[in-house]
TrEMBL record:
It comes from the Bacteria. Residues 28-190 form the KANL3/Tex30 alpha/beta hydrolase-like domain. Gene3D superfamilies: alpha/beta hydrolase. This is KANL3/Tex30 alpha/beta hydrolase-like domain-containing protein. SUPFAM superfamilies: alpha/beta-Hydrolases. InterPro entries: AB_hydrolase_fold, KANL3/Tex30_Abhydrolase, NSL3/Tex30. It holds the Pfam family Abhydrolase_11.
Length: 210
């Protein structure tokens, strides 16, 4: 039986929320962040949550304070990182804490935050959905330095036509221990990608370290 809870957690940037799905005797915890658009219901996030819970992982989808406050624009990277770390650390501490090992990830901007903070949180692995290697049409503005911070092992689930970076564009910048799984689609996956996303995430779930 899976227990579903929502926790409001104070951070230096204001309160954030953690939407937690906890199966009995979880193998560990996967913390996932949303994108800059704030879509907690994004298809890849939902499928990742469902597949990982089915495989025995506790999953926390974290809502950044700017979204909780009703703002439409995300804050600067440093403020996102600060809030994310505070929320994840709170989930791993105290009575009823979620267990390690910790897998960090998220989609798009959430994947960037996860990479930047993985070492600080002692993450054992990463799950990066639609990692935005560069802004659309601006391949010279690379975020390869952030991708390089991904914990090992990490998996990138990337759309074959993602304007923020295709799998082929990502390939030269993947750090050791990181692999990419191609899924037909762009940056936001259509419903028609449901089966392929589930298959990709089943692969990841089967390889996550206990």
């Amino acid at each position: 039986m899976t227990k579903e809870t929502v926790r409001e957690i104070p951070t230096p940037q204001g309160p954030g929320r953690a939407h937690v799905w906890r199966p009995a005797g979880p193998r560990g915890t996967v913390a996932l962040g949303h994108g800059a658009g704030g879509g907690l219901g994004a298809l890849d996030l939902r499928i990742a949550r469902d597949v990982l819970v089915e495989h025995g992982w506790a999953v926390a989808v974290i809502e950044q304070p700017w979204l909780v406050a009703g703002r439409r624009v995300a804050g600067r990277p440093a403020t996102l990182d600060e809030a994310w770390v505070a929320i994840v650390e709170a989930l791993l501490a105290g009575r009823g804490r979620l267990p390690r090992p910790l897998v960090v990830g998220g989609r798009s901007a959430g994947a960037r935050v996860a990479c930047r903070t993985a070492a600080q949180l002692g993450a054992a692995a990463g799950l990066l959905l639609s990692f935005p290697l560069h802004p659309p049409g601006r391949p010279e503005r690379l975020r390869a330095d952030e991708l390089a911070l991904a914990p090992a092992p990490s998996w990138v689930v990337q759309g074959t036509k993602d304007p923020f970076g295709t799998p082929a564009e990502l390939a030269p910048y993947l750090p050791s221990g990181t692999s990419v799984i191609e899924v037909a689609g762009a940056h936001s996956f259509p419903v028609s990608s449901t089966g392929a996303l589930r298959a990709a995430l089943e692969i990841v779930a089967g390889m996550l370290p206990d």
